[in-house]
Design brief:
- This protein has about 90 residues and is mainly alpha-helical.
- It has a single domain (about 5-75), classed as Orthogonal Bundle (YggX-like), CATH 1.10.3880.
- It is about 45% helix and about 5% strand.
- It has 3 helices and 2 strands; from the N terminus they run E-E-H-H-H.
- The chain has helices at about 25-35, 35-50, 60-75, and strands at about 5, 15.
- Helix 2 crosses helix 3 (about 60-75).
- It starts with a strand and ends in a 16-residue tail after the last helix.
- The model has no long low-confidence stretch (mean pLDDT about 95).
């Protein structure tokens, strides 16, 4: 049976993640509040931000920035986009 969560991004019950994606309390919160669909979408955006903004995950400031962007994304708030990014037409 698939575990469902009330997704903070989509505001509906959706299939949840099967395991905690991050360590500690932040990972517990993601597991409880974020759907698998929203997590996969966030991973794609996070990868774009890391690559286009040349972020180093060794730098604590960059990790804080990504964490802030992640929660903004999951709460449907505006998030940074790579320069020149155009969402797919559809």
């Amino acid at each position: 049976m698939t575990r469902t969560v009330f997704c903070s991004r989509y505001r509906e019950q959706l299939p949840g993640l099967t395991a905690q994606p991050l360590p500690g309390p932040m990972g517990e919160k993601v597991l409880a509040e974020v759907s698998a669909k929203a997590w996969t979408e966030w991973q794609a955006l996070q990868t774009m931000l890391i690559n286009e903004k040349h972020l180093s995950l060794i730098d604590p400031e960059n990790r804080r920035y990504l964490s802030e962007q992640m929660w903004r994304y999951f709460n449907n708030e505006p998030v940074d986009q790579p320069e020149g990014y155009r969402p797919p037409a559809g």
